Amino acid sequence: MQKTTHTLQDTAFNALLIHYKTASLRTSGLWLLFANLCFTLFLFGRHHFQLLLDPVSKVAIPATIFDKLSLIIIVFFIIALSLVRYIRGMLPAMALAFVTGLYWAVVFHVMVSNDTQQQLVFPLFCMLIFTALIALYPSTPILYSFTAPLWLSLFVHLVFLRTTIPILEVAAMIIASGLFESGRIMLNRWFVLSVRRECDNALLVSKLDDLAHNDPLTGVANRRQLDSQLEQLIAQTELQGGTLSLIMIDVDFFKKYNDHYGHQAGDSCLISIADCFKHVVRQPTDLVARYGGEEFVVLLPNAGTQDAEVVASRIKQSVEKAAIPHALSQVSQTVTVSQGIMQWAPGMTSLELLKRADSALYQAKHAGRNGYCVGE
Ligand SMILES: Nc1nc2c(ncn2[C@@H]2O[C@H](COP(=O)(O)OP(=O)(O)OP(=O)(O)O)[C@@H](O)[C@H]2O)c(=O)[nH]1
């Protein structure tokens, strides 16, 4: 039982985690693509910045292949920005992240190969990976799809394409990697923890709601829910017209049952009887409630006396079919119930309706039990 509850809790938690991951990645993915577009625009505009900042030297940054493809790249980012909300599933998201990361890896390669632009690479690399970290930390596979080509291109360049390995730059890259990975783990833990808290709170609220509205033994509605539902139904029927009936049910010779079989068996008997009631009413409009002790009430909206009598006879049959042995009953060898039916009439309060149903039940008891009487 406890294992089942744990599995249900885990399932709820996993569903919530996926929901929040998707929602968060959808928003932050947009932001990341926008940041990428800004970085790209900066790169394409850097010739003009350079000339603006240093007009005397007139040293222009040489154009690369990317400057020639600038329009295509900007259009790619704009399309990706407008498509991001339609992305469903992990693979397409990873593919988009990978293509974007690959684009930057190639950009870096071109920049590193071009001597005058090398100083831009490391700051741009750091900005990109930390921007990606902020946006994509809820999903490690998507984050790594984006950053893996970047790490790889820088690593290959530092280690294989240089004549001597630049120790300082390698050290800076290792520090950046350490900060990135520890930051990712920390942010991810906070994310999972906050979703876990949210899930626990939701479960707690649902448990409290259950306790506030349902009877803990039988699981049917409790007196509080019955009272509020009855008031609502009376107000509704008064306003819109229509019919409303109520059946009050009492288990026959239940004191004797308890005395003979014990209180625990009495509890099990009440659970089985409540199950019988639940199975014979219309769902979800009718309401089965525990009125108190071994008394139950069935509320039947849009039902007149005749409909209620049909339900009462179904209840009788269902309880008989359950065949719960009752050695001390004077009317049967199994547990039986007596029922009082009352139809609501205009002007009748909920208290009056319950009182009249109770009188009808009293009549049914006097008439020999294991049956029902209709109140007036
Ligand atoms: N096991 C159990 N017994 C309960 C519970 N609530 C009430 N009872 C018992 O139900 C019995 C009700 O007894 P009575 O009101 O005398 O009614 P009865 O014995 O059914 O007699 P009749 O209604 O005349 O047929 C009492 O013994 C209560 O202790 C419960 O939650 N569990």
TrEMBL record:
<dbReference type="InterPro" id="IPR033444">
    <property type="entry name" value="MASE5"/>
</dbReference>
<dbReference type="Pfam" id="PF00990">
    <property type="entry name" value="GGDEF"/>
</dbReference>
<keyword id="KW-1133">Transmembrane helix</keyword>
<protein>
    <recommendedName>
        <fullName>diguanylate cyclase</fullName>
        <ecNumber>2.7.7.65</ecNumber>
    </recommendedName>
</protein>
<feature type="domain" description="GGDEF">
    <location>
        <begin position="242"/>
        <end position="376"/>
    </location>
</feature>
<comment type="pathway">
    <text>Purine metabolism; 3',5'-cyclic di-GMP biosynthesis.</text>
</comment>
<feature type="transmembrane region" description="Helical">
    <location>
        <begin position="30"/>
        <end position="49"/>
    </location>
</feature>
<keyword id="KW-0812">Transmembrane</keyword>
<feature type="transmembrane region" description="Helical">
    <location>
        <begin position="118"/>
        <end position="137"/>
    </location>
</feature>
<dbReference type="Pfam" id="PF17178">
    <property type="entry name" value="MASE5"/>
</dbReference>
<dbReference type="InterPro" id="IPR050469">
    <property type="entry name" value="Diguanylate_Cyclase"/>
</dbReference>
<dbReference type="InterPro" id="IPR000160">
    <property type="entry name" value="GGDEF_dom"/>
</dbReference>
<feature type="transmembrane region" description="Helical">
    <location>
        <begin position="69"/>
        <end position="87"/>
    </location>
</feature>
<keyword id="KW-0472">Membrane</keyword>
<feature type="transmembrane region" description="Helical">
    <location>
        <begin position="94"/>
        <end position="112"/>
    </location>
</feature>
<feature type="transmembrane region" description="Helical">
    <location>
        <begin position="167"/>
        <end position="187"/>
    </location>
</feature>
